[in-house]
Amino acid sequence: MKKSLLIPALTFMMSFGLYYSDDSQMMICGDGILKSQMERNYPGYLDVVQKTFEDAKSRAIQPYRGQDIYTIPVVEHIVWKEEEENLHDSIVFNQIETLNEDFRRMNADADNIRSIFADRVGDPGIEFELVAIERVQTNAEFTPTLTGLPDQVKDSIQGSVAWDTEHHMNIWVCKLQPLEVFGIPFGQVLGYAYPPAGLDNWPEGSSAPDPAFDGVVVDYRIFGRNNELTIDPGIGEPVSGYGRTATHEVGHYLGLRHIWGDVLLGDGCSEDDGVEDTPNQASSSEWSCDTTRNTCIDTLENLPDMIENYMDYSDERCMNSFTLGQIAIMRAVMEGPRSGLLEEPTSTEEIPTASPNFRLFPNPVSFNEVNLAIGGSSHQHLRLQVFDSMGRLIKDRSDLSEMQSIDLANQSRGMYLFRISNRKTGELLGVEKLVLQR
User: Fold this and answer.
1) pLDDT tens for residues 122-132?
2) Residue pLDDT, tens place only, 322-361
3) Most CB contacts within 10 A, which of 77, 105, 268, 414?
4) Which residues, 6 or more positions from 373, have their beta carbon under 8 angstroms from its beta carbon?
């Protein structure tokens, strides 16, 4: 059996595999340890998270049915030590594309939802716009422990500093080391994220997390569905990712819990994730796609475990849906504690700037063409790539000169990234954001 473990944001619950010489295993939960540690470090933390969740549930916001689409600006931080960890831009763009598909229910496997759940799932109406890619080389190792998460990946000494976390969702991609306690392997953490919190309600001087640490962390081996790397969770076959770890963690970032309610001890069927239309489930699906799994027998409505749900621990190949109740919570969070993501940044320091030798004008542009000016004495080996907000490559040119017009006639309004690199060396020379207005 193969197993992969995630750290959920909302309760910092982790499941760990404890391995024995006869290859048997016992699943234990570190939820109590981690929650008590967070509460010691940040008094009032759990109360504030719970209050934010209850506030989101109480908002009269319905699942997406033609209302405004919410767009989240994303900054990707690639923090790498070995060259393998310095993921290619194409993997970043692919992960953004996967998020856009999953959070608009445009994923190719959406129809794989079982008929019994078909009327419970929908389109969240949430999209993601890649603003920048930050790359930082480090000598640090990022190791989760029972007493803390490796947030040093987000500082200026060992990692990459967040862009303004009120107006951007920051995603850090790095190598997460296996969790060990007293030399015993407790499994591989794939990612974690902090939940939203009503910042005005934090106990003074004890906000948790620090605003600069807010965001999502994902292991580089499980990031993007075009990533050929695999990750060994410590038992069975190595695991390949399909971009759903990031989907899962962004779900936590937007206020969702695991569908089994993160039970620690006792009867898991008596626990609840606070969402009415997710079926009762005793525990995680443990990287399985078993459609016969039914861990809670309910007398009124006996449904199988929803392995298709992004907030389970099922195999990423069978994840394909959010329920309408989950969607309502995420949209309420976007209207409430994460509403800053819907605002325009006010500081020019928050907007990526191009290389001094690379300029687009006018910007924003409302015409069918934009002008690209490139300084320097030689344009022989330059390459221009243009990506839309979903990370799709729409133009790829190498016939560049000092000044040229770029045709936008067939493009819709929105944000585009212009990337110039050296074709021979692969060196990135500049990235600029263009806003196309119609």
Assistant:
1) 999 999 998 88
2) 999 999 999 989 998 899 999 875 543 333 434 447 888 8
3) 77
4) 358, 359, 360, 361, 402, 403
Which is it for the CA torsion 109, 111, 114, 117, positive or negative? Answer: positive
DSSP state of 260: T
Count of CB atoms within 10 A of residue 195's CB? 24
Beta bridge partners of 373: 359, 403
Catalogue the long-range contacts made by 82-88 (C-beta closer than 8 Å, 24 or more residues apart). 82/175, 84/220, 84/229, 85/174, 85/175, 85/220, 86/135, 86/137, 87/173, 87/220, 87/223, 87/224, 87/227
Rounded to whole angstroms, the Cα distance separating 328 from 278 reads: 13
> Amino acid letter at 214?
D
Helix, strand, or coil here: 47?
helix
pTM of the model: 0.73
Report whether 259 contacts 267 (CB < 8 A).
no
Q: What angle do CA 214, 318, 196 make, to 5 degrees?
A: 20
> Strands 191-193 and 216-219: what pairing?
antiparallel
Q: Tokens 């024995």 — which residue?
A: 20
DSSP 102-120: HTTT--TTGGGS-GGGGGG
* DSSP assigned state of 282: S
> Which of the residues are catalytic?
249
Compute the average pLDDT of residues 67-87.
93
- DSSP class of residue 183 equals T
